[in-house]
Design goal:
Blueprint lengths: L3 H11 L2 E4 L6 H13 L3 E5 L2 H7 L7 E3 L7 H12 L6 H7 L3 H10 L5 E3 L6 H11 L9 E7 L10 E4 L9 H17 L5 E5 L10 H16 L4 E6 L1 H5 L1 H7 L11 E3 L3 H13 L4 E8 L5 E2 L7 H14 L5
Parallel strand pairs: 1-2, 1-4, 2-3, 4-11, 6-9, 7-8, 7-9
Antiparallel strand pairs: 5-6, 5-10
Helix pairs in contact: 1-13, 2-13, 4-5, 6-7, 8-9
Length: 327
Amino acid sequence: MFDIENILKEAKKRQKTIVFPEASFSDRTVEAVKFLQKKKIVKVLLVGDASAMILRDKAFEKFDIINPITFPEREKLVKTLYEKRKEKGLTLKQADELEKDPYYFATLLVECGYADGMVSGAEGTTATSIRPALQIIKGKNKQPVSSCFLLYGKNKFLKDRPLILADCGVIQDPDADTLSIIASQTVASANLLGIEPKVAFLSYSTKGSAKGESVTKMAAACEKFRKKNKDVVCDGEMQLDAAMVESVSKHKSPESPLKGEANVLIFPDLQSANICYKAMQYVGGLTALGPILQGLKKPVNDLSRGCTAWDIVAVSAITALQCENKA
């Protein structure tokens, strides 16, 4: 049975340093980092002016806070940013200015090893949070960076089944090859979270019941994924009900290895994925955590601007699990 508390416990064992660029202007982030520090789930690192933050809330006296302007290793961060972006036309003067941005600064802290991971997005857009990561940290092995959402909670239909949906936040219209990679990345995320993946490539068609460019794309993506992941249960193209409802699966796709038990849902495009996760969250009453970024060399994770303090706590724990052990 899935239990988010197990993720918090595992994060606590690892004691990774997570940086939060929004603590100086986000009440929800402040509430979350207080809990994280009190429970020692992660080592908390904040970005901002310590004096101003302590004047606002004396609790900040107990936190490690770094100011982008007075940071002793600021020159190193500026140079790192310049080297990463000079081929794109960024000047050293522009890098010096951009380093002061809390999102770029926090990302540079991760890249340069002062923090293990970063969590933001309670106040900024997804682009604001992840653009610095795409520019500075970049993807592993030149693979695309994608995202997923973890959904869980009390639901008569799902019972205790958690779901992982991808890609809900980054790649707008992936082709079949990219979808296969997204599915592989999402399977890795499922395994990290202790979920045995059963992957459905979703469509408005089930195994050829309808025709169309998107149908062909999803069927091809499933086949490409299957060839490289022979030990993972998967099927596609499939309608959502055939993938997730046992009785419907028996009727529409009786030979499917999923048997209506899919828990990793791969969508044909960002639009459908984003709409579906929000429907599941707000209409279905599930907790939705993410976007959890996949494929980066070092973990940086985004939040929905509608997130709660608890969501920030949980995503921080997931971020800690994504960090590579340096032993």
